[in-house]
Design goal:
- With 173 residues, the protein is an alpha/beta fold.
- The protein has one domain (16-153): Beta Polymerase, domain 2 (2-Layer Sandwich), CATH 3.30.460.
- The protein is 32% helix and 25% strand.
- Strand 6 (126-131) and strand 7 form a beta hairpin.
- Helix 3 crosses helix 4 (141-151) and helix 4 crosses helix 5.
Length: 173
């Protein structure tokens, strides 16, 4: 019977891939919205499917944008609310993965549903990722994975993402 180390040596290792380089993942519409966000709020932290695609944990088309800002950050002063949008800005309170109420502000930027979440400093942990001549901040993917786990019962997309994350992580180890 082979031991664990033998299995690991025989397993083909998968290299980390930045899937944001793929046109199948980022449409021209999403790229346009990202460009507008970078221009007006260069320190915005991108999360959700953008962060997970950036590190190769999922490989699917991005359909919306999740942004993260500091809890006390003013969306007018930081430039977000100056980005041209569809004129309908919605703001409400949602519950985060720890059951704490946080502010969510949504708008359509260049036709793309964009949600801004005001979060704790801890949840603002990020890395800088480059793709297609752009550089963005992407949230620590642990938070994106926790959100997928928390809300999977409400959205099949989250369940499918978690299955793909699990498969991809198995390929790394």
């Amino acid at each position: 019977m082979p031991n664990w180390n033998t299995k690991q040596k025989n397993k083909k290792k998968k290299a980390m891939t930045n899937n944001l380089e793929s046109k199948e993942v980022l449409s021209a519409e999403i790229l346009n919205a990202i460009d507008l966000i970078i221009k007006h709020t260069p320190n915005a932290v991108f999360g959700g499917s953008i962060a997970l695609n950036a590190v190769g944990l999922i490989n699917r088309k991005v359909s919306d944008i999740d942004l993260f800002f500091h809890l006390n950050e003013n969306l007018t002063k930081n430039g977000f609310l100056s980005i041209v949008n569809d004129g309908q800005i919605l703001s409400d309170t949602v519950t985060n993965v720890n059951g704490v109420e946080i502010q969510r502000t949504g708008a359509k930027i260049a036709g793309v549903k964009t949600c801004c979440f005001k979060v704790s400093d801890e949840e603002m942990q990020h890395s800088k990722i480059e793709f297609l001549g752009r550089k963005i901040c992407v949230q620590n993917v642990n938070y994106a994975i926790m959100a997928k786990m928390t809300y999977a019962d409400k959205n099949n997309k989250h369940k499918e993402d978690l299955k793909q994350i699990n498969t991809n992580l198995d390929n790394y180890f």
